């Protein structure tokens, strides 16, 4: 496939011929696609298609075996180890299993992102955390601990954590898979609301209901490969 | 720095149970090692007081004049191993002998001449180290002009010195082994703590924490574990010392020397080593966790 000119002002994610192998297993094979800034983008496909692996490549929990990838202006193939935290600070990540720290309060879980980013002013941290918790409807539970919350509430906190750093890109890996329809709807609405404020959203899902809600772009993965003309998705 | 300490202290309190176990492990280890140290220090004191009690007697040649005697005494006083020199004339020696044998003085009444020679009695400083040093000193004394013979409890000193040296060597090896075992136990306990926190560390990294953000509070926690464990171990040892020593004294076992607790500089050194062990345990464990 011909490589398109890359415009970092326009394109926030570019993957070109990206493959990932785990030993003999091909998790992703020659995946190529672009995501433009302020898109609401779906990566869909059946279980085991490689959606989560693709997400992990984007925030560098895994490294690609071959190919070329740029995320928010950073070339993942050449990124140095000490630049990885900088990339991750530009992202908000939402997981299917929430990944909240159980012995930290809701406030501390969300505030940790700001601490990690080097924001020391307690007032700034408090204001920003409470503001985002207000948005997700969890301000009144700010001192609760994750194990005392329902799945939907935990995922709202996880979305708040993803939003609090004002990231340019939110990656949500099956964010509604563990939730009942009502909670899933609420999480989806929160992501839509973040998108309306200018954040690019990339969601992996196999939930047909979510897919039916509409998006600005999508790819479909099957057995690690993009389904589309020329092996490219878009 | 302030932020690192604040986060380290907060995490320390968040994992009270695991940290408590680690503190107890370090405390017991410090207790055992310090008890060895305490024993060695007091055995050393006992050795010094015993050495101070050793006497080397240099018998002067018959007819040695006052000048020769003064020269011998002056020379002996210059030896660093010598704490004191005392001249004992043959008359004084005979009087002492009569006093010692008491009612059997009749045995000595037949003597026309005093058979005992003039002598110089040398007491040793506590610094003298080992039976060889004592033998060497005795040889130097024997080599002086006017000294006919030198006498001291050679065999007894050699036997006692040998036992003490064997004991000291064994203790050192045991302390070395215990310290190694303790370091491994502490490192593994800290590793268990970190294993229980691996998800937290992973999450923190995924939201953008760099290595420094994760490891410095953990280093602080490791040093806190070491400090608190060390302190608890020393307090435990002091309590045992405080309870045991008066009982030993009242049982009449501590007549010849004063038992003392670990000196302050050693206490501080133990705390410092404990903190270092805590830090080393953290350092090696964290390296594994920062690889993902």
Which labels suit this protein?
heterodimer, A: about 230 residues, alpha/beta, six-stranded mixed β-sheet, four-stranded antiparallel β-sheet, about 30% helix, about 25% strand, globular, disordered C terminus, B: about 290 residues, alpha+beta, Alpha-Beta Plaits, 2 domains, 4 strands, about 70% helix, elongated
Note down, in words, how this protein is organized:
The complex is a heterodimer of chains A (234) and B (292). Chain A is α/β, with parallel strands linked by helices. Chain A contains seven helices and ten strands. Chain A has helices at 51-58, 84-89, 106-116, 122-135, 151-163, 181-196, 208-211, and strands spanning 11-22, 25-36, 40-44, 66-71, 74-75, 91-94, 169-173, 200-205, 217-222, 225-226. In chain A, strands 6-7-8-3-9-10 form a six-stranded mixed β-sheet, sandwiched between helices. The longest helix of chain A has 16 residues, at 181-196. Mean pLDDT of chain A is 88; it is low at 229-233. Chain B is an alpha+beta fold and 292 residues long. Chain B has two domains: 2-49 and 160-289, no CATH class; 55-152, Alpha-Beta Plaits. Chain B contains ten helices and four strands; from the N terminus they run H-H-E-H-E-H-H-E-H-E-H-H-H-H. Chain B has helices spanning 2-14, 16-53, 66-77, 90-101, 106-109, 130-142, 154-196, 198-206, 211-250, 264-289; strands spanning 55-60, 82-88, 119-124, 147-151. In chain B, strands 2-3-1-4 form a four-stranded antiparallel β-sheet, with helices on both faces. The radius of gyration of chain B is 30 Å and the shape is elongated. The two termini of chain B are 25 Å apart. The model of chain B has no long low-confidence stretch (mean pLDDT 82).
